[in-house]
Write a structure and sequence with these properties.
The structure is a homodimer. By secondary structure, chain A is of the alpha+beta class. Chain A is built from 9 helices and 4 strands.
């Protein structure tokens, strides 16, 4: 499917039909998310995948009882990974393990470390969260490209989600995206005019 | 081009060849950005498009002298539109102009107004900025789908950019994306392992 068609076809499904998406398709979708770009390639996010019915019911109650959560197949919970320093160390190791030399990546690693040092805890969180939205974009477009439906959702309690999912400290639920087969129909797309958004 | 191929082909071009992208292609790209999703469909962003050489030189100086800025064809400056209330009014008018009745959209509009009232100025900014990253994602993937190259960049001074571009109050430069034809070659893609990002 051409990207233009993906963009025009994608919509926020308000209800799913409950059918399970085959694991092979989910694996393809996760690869599209995994290769999303991020600042410094630091990939400051992790995605908790929820398929369990009981857990979904609990999460639904922490998300204004929106039924996308219980009717979808896989619920993706995009979490900002606020351990930026840990990610720098991890990226450094990954690059070295991939054949780079200390000498080759020294400047890059030092730049990241300097950047990290200058950030408050709050700024680390919002910065990591922004990167989540790029990954989310690939999830939504990726789902459409695979014949699946999705719905970006911010209306939930991050604190309650963290508790229900027993998330490690440092992972902050940021935006969620149920994946499945839609049981509703898209409304016609409405956007501001071109001249209202570009100048 | 299949979305999978777009995701794997896209990379952050470090240098462009200076050639101008035809307006028709830019128009197609802007449509892909315009139809990006956003929270409540509020489209809390505007994009300043810079092609002028003198302005690009000034911006380059406010962006660590990164040469993508002067070698690209079109520089997209994604600005968060922090006038959330203005956007709600505007979306309401747009929906009414599109044939919806006050009765039909009353609940939706009231929900948005209640949400806006609960946000601090700082939260409005970070929330609007997050939406910019979804639009940025469509810009990057969209560029690749159109045979163009791009580079997401956060390393610039938002204050200086706002001043150089004489931006209206309320528009905050958030992330920039030069568009053009790359004059470098992509490095092999490196990402954390699947099991390190999904759980």
């Amino acid at each position: 499917m051409e990207f233009k068609d993906i963009v025009m076809k994608r919509y926020a499904a308000k209800k799913f039909d409950g059918k399970a998406v085959p694991q092979k398709k989910i694996d393809e979708l996760l690869e599209l998310i995994r290769f999303a770009p991020s600042s410094f390639n630091l990939q400051t996010w992790k995605v908790k995948i929820v398929t369990d019915k009981v857990t979904k019911e609990k999460l639904k109650a922490a998300a204004w009882n929106q039924e996308q959560i219980t009717t979808c197949s896989h619920l993706l919970v995009f979490c900002a990974n606020t351990d930026v320093l840990g990610n720098i160390d991890h990226l450094e190791k990954t690059m070295l393990g991939n054949g780079a030399t200390h000498e080759q990546i020294k400047g890059y690693v030092n730049m990241m470390r300097g950047f990290e040092e200058g950030m408050s805890a709050e700024r680390k969180l919002t910065w990591a969260q922004k990167q989540c939205y790029i990954a989310l974009g690939n999830a939504m477009n990726g789902a459409t490209s695979l014949g699946l439906d999705s719905c970006p959702m911010e209306g939930f309690s991050p604190e309650q989600f963290a508790q229900i999912l027993d998330l490690p400290k440092g992972l902050v639920p940021t935006v969620i995206c149920p994946i499945g087969y839609a049981a509703d129909s898209p409304m016609p797309k409405l956007r501001f005019k071109k001249e209202e958004l570009f100048f």
